[in-house]
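Subject: mismatched residue count in predicted assembly?

I count 760 residues in my input, but I want to confirm that the predicted structure covers every chain. Input:
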Amino acid sequence: MDALSSKVGGSTLYLDRVRKIRRLMDEENIDIVMVTSEPNMLYFSGYSAISLERLITLLISRDEDKVSLIVPRLEEKRAEENCKLRDFELISYSDSENPIDILENIFSSKKQVRVGVEETIQFKYVYPLMSRLENINYSLVDGLLYSLRIVKDNEEAEILKKAAEINNRVLLEAIKSIREGITEKKLMMYIRNYALEIGADEVPFALVQSGANSALPHQEPTDRVILKGDTVVLDIGVRYQGYYSDLTRTVVCGSPSSKQIDIFNIVLNAQQNALNTVKEDVKAEDVDLAARRTIESSGYGEYFIHRTGHGIGLEVHEPPFIKTGNTGLLKSGMVFTIEPGIYLPGEFGVRIEDNIIVTREGYVNLAKLPKSMHIEDYEL
Amino acid sequence: MDALSSKVGGSTLYLDRVRKIRRLMDEENIDIVMVTSEPNMLYFSGYSAISLERLITLLISRDEDKVSLIVPRLEEKRAEENCKLRDFELISYSDSENPIDILENIFSSKKQVRVGVEETIQFKYVYPLMSRLENINYSLVDGLLYSLRIVKDNEEAEILKKAAEINNRVLLEAIKSIREGITEKKLMMYIRNYALEIGADEVPFALVQSGANSALPHQEPTDRVILKGDTVVLDIGVRYQGYYSDLTRTVVCGSPSSKQIDIFNIVLNAQQNALNTVKEDVKAEDVDLAARRTIESSGYGEYFIHRTGHGIGLEVHEPPFIKTGNTGLLKSGMVFTIEPGIYLPGEFGVRIEDNIIVTREGYVNLAKLPKSMHIEDYEL
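Triage response: the counts match. Full output below for your records.
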């Protein structure tokens, strides 16, 4: 009997995912996949683990129908309670033990072992065994893992919708709370609280960029006071049951100048053109191109300094990346952002960002707020 | 003329640190150090950079008196403004370029190159060049970098004191805000806000663990309602100008039971014995041993499930680690936590944590709050 076959509670979801990755491991001739990132731990086990300085890893073997979870002693109880796989082997180690020895023990029991690791694994968990073991061969399996995760199943789509529902409400409340005299930081703090109060589990970012700060896409909120006439970019991320939403609106405090109106409209058109391109079997880069061409033909091409979008799920940024050079085809169930922007250094910037789920004929938009420089009277 | 020798503003601090690491690189025969972690970026350049999916690295060459900073285009402006080194070379790349090509270009210009990387560097930034280049040899330089960072200079000690000052106030306010009926999460949110309001730049954690949750040292705040008789562990981290403070107090909501009093006193004594051990040239493990022996001799040894402390600075956890097996000697200027605890599963836990700076004769304690189960009437 398959050691993982007991179908209790929600565990078949995770069991199915493990089975799918085993099939891919067969094709790629990978013996053990060493899951180390939080999103992949969540995806395969439901257990949210963050490796700070201590190794936490889920080892999925191809042959043995065995999944082993290695955790520091401190995490043992949480691992036991939260890992939703059945019949997994839990191995814990104390602060005076070296988890590399546990890995060495497992890997050295085989003649030749191809270990699939994630790109983000810290070098310290790979480097020691490279010299200690002769029979080991590392390869990167991110592509393999993402090939499962890139298309969301129904359970995931439902959670993503709920995450976006929360984020729509947060973003609207943020826009309603803009007033002359409030600082970016103050507004950010209010947004964070509000998001947690209405059900977000985490608020990975709540960017409030006003005036010239809005021209710096990654700028964290500062003590700058918002003034009449300022462009304000609000880019908010929330996490709900492991999944992210990432939405942006750009508004103006008071009356916009004709230049603000012009730039806003170019970005709005670019975003609409990108949205209109989306459906199953379209190339990802064609969505980028649709936005980019609109902005380029308006003469602002050099001020659109990032890609048009990124996938979103258990990570804020994940495949598919909506950028030039990505000739991969969109598939139903893929979820990503569409967020063109124009950034005029020293002046202001505009970005508009939705999250969409690809369908056969087009997309479902998870963003529910209108797109204009004044939406503070809107009600969800 | 040394390309880095212009002494403008606060830049000599960073220049000195680069010079020191070059001296160590000479000894260890390392040609290039590839700085990738945020704390080390801050330490050597004053520029706080977080590599999400894009590489950000500071390359310190041994021979060329050259420091190169490689950043994604999106970060170019922030890098320019925030890097406090003078005459550094800024190299940026767009989303359609691969930063590995830039590294390949730099490394392949040498005959043989020993590249020092950090343990935490993602495998994806190391793996590709292992196969592309024959002349490259990686080694881990964390020990080298920490050997500089482990002893804080005066500038750092001052910032650490300020971080602790903020944290003392936050922790006291948190304790004053405990009342029957409040949930752990609600209290956590209040603490986070309060910390940001009084000057913390970040609040990496604000653990509120009540009742049986206090027996789980890593448990995040839940919706559990705090009740009369509950043990409440408050473990708060704040960041200020890059540096961390990490303080814990354990209190009781209402009247403690005799068991709560007993356990509290054992931990209190263990912590005092550990503190009394600290001074220059004592072994780190002797501080751990002092706490551990106290708890063991009370019969609770198996419930003290972690080390006694950890260094604190640009990271929340960094060397020196105060644990069995660390025979390294304490030196003046080292800063670390002392935080023994006892955790009774299903019942409650107690932890008391200070942050101290080692001196020749003893230590300076950065924690200013008394240690008892009731300190809500205390004023700082």
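Confidence is low (pLDDT under 50) at residues 1-9 of chain B. Marking this ticket as 'not a bug'.
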